[in-house]
Design brief:
This protein has six helices and two strands. By secondary structure, the chain is mostly helical.
Amino acid sequence: MLIPPQLRRPTVDLTDDIGDVFSNYLRGVAIAVFGYMAFMAMLLSLLGAPYGLLLGALFGAIYLIPYLNVVISSTTLVLVTVLSGKQDWLTIHFSSPWAYAGVLVVSYVACHFVFDMIVYPRFVGNAVGLHPIVSMFVIFSGGALFGLPGMILAFPVAGSIKVILDRLLAVTNKTERELILPELPLRHRDDVTG
């Protein structure tokens, strides 16, 4: 009720659009995490890692922990591989489980960074309506300026700013006749004409 009646409908529309950006962001993150989970489960299974499907699901569950997810996942992968004693993959025989674990970790880390730098910004950026290049800029800027909270909030904030700028550009590109301006209240009419 604090918003004047003439501006209430556009304001409610704007807040609805910003709410849609946040819900689309959450949907995009969920799709990216489940895609990561499936991709890592397939990769680890194809590479013959012990418990590849289970490890892929675990790695997907901790994917959203920035920086630490790679350390935790790599350590877990090494421990599981070494403790299983596995050192064969298809027709390749490694000298020890440590060597096999090293190959698995290098493959995992390389695929993780490709997913993190290319696929994740594309999924989440498209969900909030940002171009992939803008998405990468947004997440790097958010991280550089505000650290971890900046990286987490970078996409929804940038998407919300885009919605506001789209509305401003739509208003500024209209002629005076196309604009639906609120009527001047009676208490201000004397000041304008006088």
